[in-house]
Amino acid sequence: MKKNTVKIMTLAGILCLASVGGVSAYLTDYEKVSNEFTVGKVDIELKEPEWKPEENKKIEPSKVIHKDPQITNTGTNDAFVYMEVSIPMANVEAAAENGERLGKKVQELFYFEAKDSWMQLSVQNTESRRTYTYAYTKILKPQETSEALFDTVKFLNLIEGQLDGQTFEIPVRAYAIQTSYTGGSSDNLSEQIKAAYEKYVNQNKNQDGKVTE
Q1: Domain membership flag for residue 175
Q2: Taking the model in full, what pTM does it have?
């Protein structure tokens, strides 16, 4: 009985539509799909939480200085991130731990030990600086912070009287590039990181974000 009711209702509907059709009206419909696309953003912040400038106005040979550069992804896209550290060099004489003089030579004035979560990409020398470039070995997601490249730097055990009163800097620069479409065809993350870095270098030649050459 219930099935018959359904059929009757259906037929009644058809008859009604046919009546409307008598005035030459076509039954039509349309749908529209509109997709919004928001352009992503790669943005980073370089921080050194443990750096205390007031404690490091004066340094002495072999002093260990707290300096912990790390990168926070403040953008909306996953990113590969890189860090560049320039260590000042000078033609000076240092001493071994036992006080023995080691002879005068051009050498770095500060020493640091990079953590395992960073891989070295390159080392470049100029007359007065040695610049190291490192890549973070993980994808840095939005709002995540990388592990520090290092926690401290140590001043050379310098023989006194050579650089008295001079001021030195350890510039640190951070770079980032989106992970999508930049890592090449390799399935290896390390290779993707290297390929993406080359794209960053090429895109930023002669720009404010260029790497040190």
Answers
A1: yes
A2: 0.79
